[in-house]
Amino acid sequence: MSATPAAELERALARVAAAETLLVATDFDGVLAPFVLDPLDARPQAGTVEDLLALGERPGTWVAVVSGRDLETLSTLTGLQGERGAAVTRIGSHGAQSSRDDGFGLTDDQQQLLAALTDEVEAAVAEAGRPIRLEHKPSAVVVHSRGQDEVGAQQAQEIAERAAARDGVRLMAGKGIFELTVVPADKGSALRRLTDELGVAATVYLGDDVTDEHAFAVLGPDDLGIKVGDGETAAGHRVATTEDVPAVLRRLRELRAGSG
Asked: Which of 27, 29, 70, 208 is catalytic?
C-alpha cells in the first residue's frame, strides 16, 4: 500500500476534524521524532508538539502521545513536563504507564521476575561480547539492535527470544528493539481505555511500528488511522515518511480550529 493520495487524506482529516469530540494520539519515535542511533538523542520535529498543544486547547479535543518509552523519559524528550505537559496525556511503556494514573507499580512477583530477567539478559549480552545496548524500564528490559551489523542484530534477537521463554515475560519486537516486559500491556488496550474514559466521538492515531498495530486494530469506522512509512498495517491511510507528520498535524490543527 502506497502513501494515501493527498486529496483523499485531506478528506479523511476534514471528516474527523468535524467530530463533536476528538482524540488525537500519536506514537513518538518514528512519528513525532525521527529515529536516531542513540534513542536519548531523539527530539520531536519542529512544530509537532506545539500543534498537539494547540489542538488540546480546542473545545472537545484531547491529545495523547503513546510510546514504548518509559513515562519519565517520554515526558523529558517531548518537553511535556509540569504545567506544559498537563494538557497532553502521555502513555508510556506500551500502555503500562500513563500520566493520568499515578498508581503504577509492580507486584512483588513482578519485581522478582524483572530482577531475574535483567540479570539473565545482562549476562547474555556480556557473553556475546558485542556492544549491544540495553535499556532498563520500570517494567521491562529492552534489547536494542539498531546500529548493529547483521551478526550483532541476530545475536540481540536471539538473546531476547531466549529470555522471553521465562513464564510471565512477554516479548514485543519493534524497529530495532526487542522489549521484554513483565507487565501485560499494549498500545491498543491503552488507547481503548483512554477513548472509553474520554467518551470521544472520533480518534486519530498515527504510528509507524509493529507495536502500533495494536492501536490501529481498536479503531472504529469513525476513526482515522495513519501509518507512517512502509510495512503491512491495519491503518486505513498512510504517509510515506516521518517528515510528512508535521504537515498532517498542522493541517488537522487548522481544520479543527475551523470546525468551531
From this structure: 27
